[in-house]
Design a protein that fits this description.
single chain; alpha+beta; seven-stranded antiparallel beta sheet; 4 helices; globular; binds flavin mononucleotide
């Protein structure tokens, strides 16, 4: 049964994102590579972003009012590596990429214009990840047929934190 579950999950593919947040007190930026992102309601529009409780980003996101969800394309594979294989517990990822502060200080990555800023409505206990239920408050329009960086292209990256 476990093997079949593993095989089922291994066959899935989905787009990758960098999710960022800022500490409301210090402005400290945080962000990590996330594959567990999905729209979970049509009306009202809602997004669910799942963050591992082990991550530095999780601890900051728990205190933040807003999260920024940056869609990645194949040309942003280097950002996927930076945000997916390094932890803010040990490395300042934001010293290694171009970004600016958005509303509430939420970090916006310069190279990822296709992004959505969401207000955290609720945090849901889901297992070793928590779900952050987002109400979109701002979205950048995406071009047509924009290529996406998929999980299958980055699945071999070693995660910066074990889940
Ligand atoms: C392919 C891939 C997918 C990942 N998906 C998620 C995810 O959905 N949620 C999550 O919290 N972390 C995910 N991670 C792990 C974090 O991006 C990684 O542990 C990161 O280094 C944590 O950084 P932080 O400690 O600065 O938050 C993924 C990593 C990789 C390589």
């Amino acid at each position: 049964m476990d093997d079949r579950v593993d095989a089922f999950l291994a066959a899935l593919d989905y787009p990758m994102f960098v999710v960022t947040a800022a500490c409301p007190d210090t402005g400290e930026p945080a962000g990590c590579l996330v594959g567990f992102v999905t729209q979970c309601s049509i009306e009202p529009v809602r997004l669910l972003v799942c963050l591992s409780k082990a991550n530095h980003t999780y601890r900051i996101a728990c205190r933040a009012r807003l999260l920024a969800v940056h869609s990645l394309g194949p040309e942003e594979a280097d950002l996927a590596e930076l945000f997916g294989t390094r932890s803010g517990d040990r490395v300042d990822k934001f010293a290694r990429c171009a970004w600016r502060s958005g509303p509430d200080g939420v970090p916006l990555l310069d190279r990822c214009g296709y992004r959505l800023i969401g207000r955290v409505l609720e945090r849901l206990e889901l297992g070793d990840h928590d779900g952050f239920l987002l109400e979109p408050v701002h979205a950048q329009e995406a071009g047509p047929n924009r290529p996406l960086l998929m999980f299958s292209a980055v699945r071999d990256l070693p995660a910066g934190h074990p889940a």
